[in-house]
């Protein structure tokens, strides 16, 4: 099968790659670029484990063809922070105990990032709605919702990096 050359930015880095037209963005991110933080779950767009931000919107990367990323700006979980300098959202998830098996966490964090970038002070209902495309089988969501509330306060400057919730 013929390959198509595409150019895009991922986590602030310009890329030019050749991809098969039938390959998904998820495949490109994980297998071609080696960014394993974006998880492969259902591959039907239902679980949200593969959520990334593309041109300012969340997408399930298993439902986007890699060729559709041509000219786009993509952010994956690796683009938010790292072990030495975690993003405030990542810190909040740890502090709230919102991580159990961790499989859904990258997608949850990316959906949270999108939410807080667009609504810095969401209500609980808005948080739950924003996360409705991300499934978790471990937590029951209470701690995840609490993590989003903590992250919102952190990002507004209401909590210091290591300060606990109420």
Question: How would you describe the overall organization of this protein?
Answer:
By secondary structure, this protein is an alpha+beta fold. The chain has two domains: 3-79, Beta-grasp domain (Ubiquitin-like (UB roll), Roll), CATH 3.10.20; 88-155, [2Fe-2S]-binding domain (DNA polymerase, domain 1). Helix content is 31%, strand content 16%. The termini are far apart.
Biggest β-sheet description: 5 strands, mixed
Structural class: alpha+beta
* CATH architecture term of the largest domain: Roll
Task: Kindly report how far apart the N and C termini lie.
Answer: 56 Å
Mean pLDDT: 93
Number of helices: 5
Task: Sum up the structure in keywords.
166 residues, globular, 5-stranded mixed sheet, Ubiquitin-like (UB roll), alpha+beta, single chain, 5 strands, DNA polymerase, domain 1
């Amino acid at each position: 099968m013929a390959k198509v050359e595409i150019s895009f930015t991922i986590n602030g880095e310009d890329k030019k790659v050749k991809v098969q037209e039938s390959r998904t963005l998820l495949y490109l991110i994980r297998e071609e670029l080696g960014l394993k933080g974006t998880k492969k779950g259902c591959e039907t767009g239902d679980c949200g484990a593969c959520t990334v931000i593309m041109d300012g919107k969340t997408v399930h990367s298993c439902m986007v063809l890699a060729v559709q990323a041509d000219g786009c700006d993509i952010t994956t979980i690796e683009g938010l922070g790292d072990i030495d300098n975690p993003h405030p959202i990542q810190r909040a998830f740890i502090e709230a105990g919102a991580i159990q098996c961790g499989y859904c966490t990258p997608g949850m964090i990316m959906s949270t990032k999108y939410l807080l970038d667009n609504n810095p002070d969401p209500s609980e209902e808005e948080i739950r709605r924003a996360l409705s495309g991300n499934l978790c089988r471990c937590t029951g969501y209470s701690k995840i919702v609490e993590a989003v509330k903590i992250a919102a306060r952190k990002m507004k400057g209401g909590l210091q990096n290591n300060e606990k919730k109420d």
